[in-house]
Amino acid sequence: MRRAIVFDLDGTLVDSAPDIAAAANRVLSEMDHAPLPVPLLTSFIGHGIPRLVGRVIEHLTLDPAQHKAMTTRMLAHYTERPADLTRPYPGVFAALEALRDTGHVMGVCTNKYRGLSVQVLDALGLSAFFEVVIGGDCLPQKKPDPAPLRAAFAALDATPLLYVGDSEVDAETAHAIDLPFGLHTGGYRSTPVEDLPHSFAFDHFSSLSGLVGALPGREHNPLTHRPAVPTRPG
Predict the structure, then answer these.
(1) Taking the chain (234 residues) in consecutive chunks of 10 residues, what is each chunk's mean pLDDT?
(2) How many independent structural domains does the chain possess?
């Protein structure tokens, strides 16, 4: 029986914050604003570019009427250069190869637009590992609504085994459908690891294959660590 694993993208498979921040700061430069620090912009990642632009507007107390134009400009900048600075996290290639070699089928479920996600995966040589990519523009709903994750597993047509992500949004998405969740601790979350529901946590992809292999081999697998889901950052 084929078993399916779905991954988040930003902060999970790839460190894309430098390129996302660069695109946002190019928009601000066009508006004669000083750049924002990369760590601050990184904290805005997780709900897609339109939401990130909204956070920038709120932080700088800009006119909300500028949201549409700023989003359009940021998407243009990011589409032009989506992977100049973005890199896979250490060990990602070896981990994906090991999972593929043990018969797992894999997909991506992200709030980044699908076209941008595919651009990044292609640029970094990761696309061949994934049979499906569900982006934030594929369905009316976005994570943490579980509909995109359900769609990814449905497209893979295999037994759902695990969702792997890095953030509060990802933890809540998996929790919503009682799916085992692997938490990459090196990503963009702001909540302590112990306060997020997860089946296991890992800080390097070299350990992922072994952790996946230790999961109980049944179709429904309750979370082994399941506190109340915290309120996700605004």
Answers:
(1) 94 97 98 97 92 97 98 97 97 98 97 96 98 97 97 96 97 97 96 97 98 77 40 34
(2) 2
Q: Residue 112: which residues within 8 A CB-CB, separation 6 or more?
A: 9, 10, 48, 49, 120, 135, 136
Whole-angstrom CA distances from 206 to 92, 95, 128, 136, 196 are 8, 6, 20, 28, 22
CB-based contact 116:137 (threshold 8 Å): no
Euclidean distance between CA atoms 136 and 97, whole angstroms: 26
Q: Domain of 67?
A: 17-80
Q: Residues 179, 27: contact at Cβ < 8 Å?
A: no
Q: Alpha-carbon distance 54 to 70, whole Å?
A: 9
User: Based on the domain organization, do 70 and 121 belong to the same domain?
Assistant: no
Are residues 94 and 206 in contact, defined by beta-carbon separation less than 8 angstroms? yes
| 8 annotated active-site | yes
pTM for the model stands at: 0.90
